[in-house]
Design brief:
- It is a single chain.
- The chain has 2 domains: 161 residues, D-Maltodextrin-Binding Protein, domain 2 (3-Layer(aba) Sandwich); 103 residues, D-Maltodextrin-Binding Protein, domain 2, CATH 3.40.190.10.
- Helix 2 packs antiparallel against helix 10 and helix 5 crosses helix 11.
- Helix content is 43%, strand content 20%.
- Helix 2 links the parallel strand 1 and strand 2.
- With 281 residues, it is of the alpha/beta class.
Length: 281
């Protein structure tokens, strides 16, 4: 009887531990639309991976724009987010760096200027006056801020230089807009472009890269103001260790990333400088 009683106590304790873990409030991670075909299915797999290692449920929250993601961070509706370096430097007094992805051996990426493949004449923004131009997001460094600095350096008014501009709200959609002829050119995240070239060469092959920017700090994962330091460092630790196990490496391969690094604020110095040049709307 004492042994049976001890077994029951052990079972009950284990049940309580499982129940407590299930009752933990999920960590909510915000993201904008990415390049993946089955992005919802992939994010579910990534959430499961992170949740098991954090011993806490994880839920990805998708929003259409960086502005929406930043607002949700500030209002406490999400805990973390994968955002561009531009909104990070705009709000860095309140947002805290968690981790920075590593791509092609570095925590950096570039902005690409792309045109339709059949356009063999265009060599730079100087050849696009009066044309139709596609931006990705008004809070995107590669898809808006960097082209603005180039136009400023040319001494032209970015609001009047092109015949028409529009936002696609997705880097992939910038590539598609140029490939399909809806735009004469566009600015796109080079990491997204190169990943699409691997996954969907039939799309990128209909475009041509005419300019690659200097390197910028890769879009980081950040913590909302309300997140405590323990949770921030817990998530950082799990992200940094993803390349150390088979499932983590599989997920990273799906993202076309090498891994994550802790990074630092100086990675985004060139984006701060670009913001200073363009102004602080």
């Amino acid at each position: 009887m004492p042994l049976l009683r001890a077994l029951w106590i052990t079972v009950l304790c284990l049940a309580c531990m499982v129940s407590a873990a299930e009752e933990k409030t999920p960590l909510r991670i915000g993201t904008t639309p990415v390049f993946l075909d089955d992005q919802i299915g992939f994010l579910d797999q990534w959430a499961t991976y992170l949740g098991l290692r954090l011993n806490q449920p994880v839920r990805f929250v998708q929003r259409a724009s960086y502005r929406q993601i930043v607002r949700e961070l500030m209002e406490g509706n999400i805990d973390f987010a994968w955002i561009c370096g531009y909104p990070f430097v705009r709000e860095e007094e309140r947002l805290r760096l968690v981790a920075v992805p590593v791509w092609q051996g570095e925590p950096r990426y570039r902005s690409y200027l792309i045109v339709p493949r059949e356009d063999t004449v265009t060599q730079s923004l100087r050849d696009l006056e009066g044309r139709i131009f596609a931006y990705s997001d008004p809070l995107s460094n590669s898809g808006w801020l960097y082209p603005q600095t180039q136009l400023k350096a040319m001494g032209v008014d970015p609001q009047r230089y092109f015949g028409r501009t529009f936002f696609t709200w997705s880097h992939r959609k910038v590539v598609e807009a140029v490939a399909l002829g809806f735009a004469d050119a566009g600015a796109v995240d080079g990491y997204v472009y190169e990943t699409l070239a691997r996954l969907h060469p039939e799309i990128t092959s209909r475009t041509r890269v005419v300019h690659r920017s200097p390197p910028f700090g890769f879009p980081p994962l950040v913590a909302a103001p309300h997140v405590d330091e323990v949770d921030r460092l817990r998530l950082r630790s799990v992200l940094l260790s993803m390349s150390n196990d088979a499932e983590g490496r599989r997920l990273l391969q799906h993202l076309n990333l090498d891994g994550f690094t802790a990074g630092n604020s100086h990675l985004f110095d060139s984006i701060r400088e670009a913001w200073r040049q363009v102004g602080r709307p």
